[in-house]
């Protein structure tokens, strides 16, 4: 059985290969997505290491002059996706979206180096300045006051697009009269009850309009934009990725980079504390303009272990919360706490389980000494695929496959788990 799923996973990755980069799934997502490609590289490493590196390298073909690696690169115009390049107005070649996504690449690059040979080291070295520029962009543009807490300017930047975490920031947005009519394409592919509502979409586009109209001036967007929140997923992935980048800097004997990264790391551990919510018993999202904390645990909260965030007491509390939540689910880890209002077991990021989040959560739990929880989560991740196929996400109560089919990152993570690819030990 395991063998059969590996073959299918490999076939899916090959079928979604567009020559140097993969699409997440044909139809629904016809372009290159940033963190999808980082996870895809992990899957490719199971059968083609050169192709794994290509996947990482192509992410940076869309890198902006200021260092940002955008969340979508629009190489071939495909009208089946909305909002496309004209709505974003990036004025870059290739065209892209105007914000980023969780910076997973350095984590995978370090892992490739540590499990590889001199060729891996060479490819990582070539990518290193690009990675430094991108991480630098996060620390500069998304944390201009150097607090150690990075913000996001759109829920899409978190990668957890429709999570109730963003409701507080979304409610503050006024939809302008001149937003204009548009035709969503996502609901042509996936049932509406698994996708965001129409009003949510109007707000998404209001944020894009602001960015486009100020020429994607990120200083201005941070200061005056319609949405500014902090996300435990971005914060913890960046913390983890900074540590992995530090290990690479060490390998390349790059002292200047080492000093820069050490500053980032020291600050971020401090900044992460602004996400701790005692009442919820975990790290949660924060509305940056008011300082309000969300009151529920998500799968992003569980990345604290992976990011190396929190005190021993905080991590113990989080592990306890993880146990309680897993007891309520047939398959972990849900994207929203089932004990909280707002839990929807089938709707995009409001309850369902994602393989990529699980891979990171399990890696962190293992490193923190919670092998029982890590094993449960890895087991569930593979069981979901065996029961339902390689879907985009899954119902935590029934295991039903939801969203797009034949999904690249679901296939990649299944291969990674099959081959026991875990992130390298924390630095
Ligand atoms: C959705 C997800 C996002 C992902 C993209 C492509 O927008 O929320 O995280 O990158 O799909 O798979």
Automatic annotation (TrEMBL):
GO MF annotations for this entry? Glc3Man9GlcNAc2 oligosaccharide glucosidase activity
Return the PANTHER family for the record: MANNOSYL-OLIGOSACCHARIDE GLUCOSIDASE
The organism of origin for this protein = Roseitalea porphyridii
Q: Which GO terms describe its biological process?
A: oligosaccharide metabolic process; protein N-linked glycosylation
Ranges for domain Mannosylglycerate hydrolase MGH1-like glycoside hydrolase come to 29-410
Keywords, ordered alphabetically: Glycosidase, Hydrolase
- According to UniProt, the name of this protein is Mannosylglycerate hydrolase MGH1-like glycoside hydrolase domain-containing protein
Entry annotated with the keyword Membrane: no
Q: Which family does it belong to?
A: Belongs to the glycosyl hydrolase 63 family.
């Amino acid at each position: 059985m395991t063998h059969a799923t590996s073959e299918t996973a490999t076939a899916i990755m090959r079928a979604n290969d567009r020559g140097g980069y993969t699409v997440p799934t044909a139809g629904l997502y016809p372009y290159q997505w940033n963190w999808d490609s980082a996870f895809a590289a992990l899957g490719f490493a199971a059968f083609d290491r050169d192709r794994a590196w290509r996947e990482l390298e192509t992410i940076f073909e869309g890198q902006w002059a200021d260092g940002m690696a955008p969340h979508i690169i629009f190489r071939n115009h495909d009208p089946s996706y909305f909002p496309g390049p004209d709505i974003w107005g990036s004025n870059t070649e290739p065209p892209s979206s105007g914000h980023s996504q969780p910076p997973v690449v350095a984590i995978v690059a370090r892992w490739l180096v540590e499990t590889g040979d001199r060729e891996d080291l060479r490819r990582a070295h070539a990518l290193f300045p690009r990675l430094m520029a991108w991480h630098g962009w996060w620390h500069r543009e998304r944390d201009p006051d150097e607090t150690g807490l990075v913000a996001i300017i759109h829920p899409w930047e978190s990668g957890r697009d429709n999570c109730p975490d963003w409701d507080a920031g979304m409610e503050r947005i006024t939809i302008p009269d001149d937003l204009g009519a548009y035709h969503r394409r996502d609901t042509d592919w996936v049932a509406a009850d698994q996708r965001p509502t129409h009003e949510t979409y109007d707000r998404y586009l209001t944020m894009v309009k602001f960015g486009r109209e100020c020429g994607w001036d990120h200083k201005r967007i941070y200061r005056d934009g319609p949405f500014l929140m902090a996300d435990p997923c971005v914060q913890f992935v960046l913390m983890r990725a900074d540590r992995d980048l530090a290990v690479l800097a060490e390998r390349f004997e790059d002292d200047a980079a080492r000093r820069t990264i050490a500053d980032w790391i020291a600050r971020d551990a401090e900044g992460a504390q602004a996400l701790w919510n005692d009442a919820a018993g975990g790290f949660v999202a924060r509305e940056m303009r008011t300082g309000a904390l969300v009151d529920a645990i998500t799968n992003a909260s569980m990345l604290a272990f992976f990011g190396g965030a929190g005190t021993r007491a905080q991590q113990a509390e989080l592990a306890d919360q993880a146990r309680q939540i897993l007891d309520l689910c047939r398959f972990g880890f849900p994207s929203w706490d089932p004990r909280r209002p707002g839990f929807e077991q089938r709707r995009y990021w409001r309850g369902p389980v994602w393989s990529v989040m699980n891979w990171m959560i399990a890696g962190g739990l293992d490193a923190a000494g919670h092998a029982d929880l890590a094993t449960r989560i890895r087991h569930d991740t593979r069981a979901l695929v065996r029961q339902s196929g390689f879907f985009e996400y899954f119902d935590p109560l029934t295991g039903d496959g939801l969203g797009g089919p034949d999904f690249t990152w679901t296939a990649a993570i299944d291969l990674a788990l099959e081959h026991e690819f875990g992130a390298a030990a924390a630095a």
